[in-house]
């Protein structure tokens, strides 16, 4: 079975020198499970994110980049079985540190509110997340 999918999206990036902003948004129609008809229908979707960051050079420690990111989405999750509806609202604050050119260390806090895609656990899921990441670029 096939479903019509039509989207339009925009992406913009202003590299941090020292202030930067990145944004991506899309609108359109795509597959989504309809609870009332118990079938997959083509429905409206929209969402994306906006992230602002600041690049702060330091004398001997390597650059620091604090950032904030807001994400919002309403629509079907076509990669999920039966394209369940997702409702996502997230806000993240973080700090990336690059002590050497090849090494990046990120620490972040996120506040999330999501609709569960699994019908057995229908409802909103809310939570706080603390994330750390170490990345080696080669």
UniProtKB/TrEMBL annotation:
InterPro entries: Porin_dom_sf (IPR023614), Porin_O/P (IPR010870)
SUPFAM superfamilies: Porins
Source superkingdom: Bacteria
Pfam families: Porin_O_P
Protein name: Porin
């Amino acid at each position: 079975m096939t479903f019509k999918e039509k989207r339009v999206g925009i992406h913009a990036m202003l590299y941090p020198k020292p202030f930067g902003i990145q944004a991506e948004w899309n609108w359109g129609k795509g597959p989504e499970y309809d609870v009332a008809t118990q079938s997959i229908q083509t429905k409206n979707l929209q969402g994306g994110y906006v992230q602002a960051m600041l690049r702060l050079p330091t004398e001997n420690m390597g650059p620091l980049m604090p950032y904030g990111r807001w994400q919002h989405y309403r629509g079907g999750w076509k990669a999920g079985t039966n394209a369940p509806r997702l409702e996502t609202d997230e806000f993240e604050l973080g700090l990336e540190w690059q002590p050497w050119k090849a090494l990046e260390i990120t620490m972040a806090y996120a506040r999330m509110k999501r609709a569960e895609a699994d019908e057995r656990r229908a409802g909103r899921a809310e939570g706080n997340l603390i994330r750390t990441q170490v990345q080696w670029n080669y």
